[in-house]
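Practice problem 4.
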């Protein structure tokens, strides 16, 4: 197959470089940087997608750097180990802005992204896979195992644990403020949470996110908060301490048990939790909420959750998302609301993932 020369002009949502072929087709190139002049070879040609691999870098981008990880690019855990952190943040902003414009149809553009400045040693959780012989992370683009004895993204105590792992089983490692002991705990702004089930993998960035969500919710003691997909109640408690009463909803009964323990430990008796699927028929023992917060799975709000929000009709909706595309889609479906504020948070440095927090206000409220 004949190689072709392209110039990379941006990034797609997976962190691959984007260029245009001479025939006008858009091509995605893993490991390429904005500004690269490349010789590439097409590896995948389908009606809606074309991919290529780099055969030669003719003129490198000024944003290129040497990777500091011996497992990159074989390991699929990181996307951006080869560009500057400033360029990475720009790529994530592009992803958010593209989603808002192309999917949400919104005339909004963000020009900054909240971040802690910490690009290494921030992850408090690691999920390792096995092929029966060795344990590690998946190879980029496949299920092949890359044995890893040290990951630059992980906290020090998790890396210490990697050294003594049995190499023939799946394992999930988690670390809290009390190390690797169980039950794990984490602290955010004076509140202490027991962790079970979902919790943000970057505690420092989680504090940035929670503070922004609290600012957007703008609760007073006259307000009622409803938090959907509440997990162990961390966000419910963090924001709900400002409200007169608050309710968290989560389908995982074990998470609800932990959430109630967290409310009791932090002396917040006005916050309650119920175990229910967001889509199902359930009632809360409080008046209609002034504010609803949602932090749905990557796939976004289900039809049932969307209808529930519309029926409850809160004055404010704070939407937290780990996928700008599904967030933009849901914003478009929430007719009757307008975007008042939105921000991006770098929850996952050196990867292509980005967190968003959006405030939607009821029109004519």
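Answer key:
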């Amino acid at each position: 197959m004949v190689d072709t020369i392209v110039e990379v002009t941006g990034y797609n949502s997976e962190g691959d470089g984007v260029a245009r072929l001479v025939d006008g087709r858009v091509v995605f190139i893993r490991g390429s940087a904005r500004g690269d002049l490349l010789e590439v070879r097409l590896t995948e040609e389908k009606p809606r997608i074309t991919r290529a691999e780099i055969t030669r870098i003719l003129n490198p981008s000024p944003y290129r750097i040497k990777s500091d990880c011996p497992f990159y690019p074989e390991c699929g855990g990181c996307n951006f180990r080869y560009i500057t952190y400033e360029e990475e943040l720009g790529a994530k902003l592009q992803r958010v802005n593209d989603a808002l414009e192309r999917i949400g149809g919104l005339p909004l553009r963000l020009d900054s992204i909240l971040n802690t400045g910490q690009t290494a040693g921030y992850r408090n959780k690691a999920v390792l896979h096995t092929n029966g012989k060795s344990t590690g992370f998946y190879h980029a683009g496949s299920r092949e195992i890359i044995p890893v004895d040290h990951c630059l993204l992980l906290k020090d105590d998790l890396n210490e644990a990697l050294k003594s792992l049995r190499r023939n089983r799946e394992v999930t490692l988690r670390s809290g403020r009390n190390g690797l002991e169980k039950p794990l705990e984490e602290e955010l702004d004076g509140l202490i949470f027991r962790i079970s089930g979902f919790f943000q993998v970057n505690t420092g960035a989680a504090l940035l996110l929670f503070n922004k969500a609290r600012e957007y919710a703008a609760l007073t003691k006259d307000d009622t908060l409803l938090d959907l997909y509440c997990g162990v109640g961390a966000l419910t408690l963090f924001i709900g301490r400002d409200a007169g009463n608050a309710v968290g909803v989560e389908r995982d009964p074990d998470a609800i048990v932990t959430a109630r323990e967290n409310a009791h430990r932090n002396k917040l008796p006005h916050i309650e939790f119920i175990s229910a699927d967001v889509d199902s028929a359930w009632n809360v023992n409080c008046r209609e909420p002034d504010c609803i917060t949602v932090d749905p799975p990557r796939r976004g709000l289900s039809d049932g959750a969307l209808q529930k929000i519309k029926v409850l009709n809160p004055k404010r909706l704070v939407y937290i998302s780990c996928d700008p595309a599904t967030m933009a889609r849901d914003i478009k479906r929430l007719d009757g609301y307008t975007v008042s504020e939105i921000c991006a948070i770098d929850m996952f440095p050196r990867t292509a993932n980005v967190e968003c927090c959006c405030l939607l206000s009821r029109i004519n409220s």
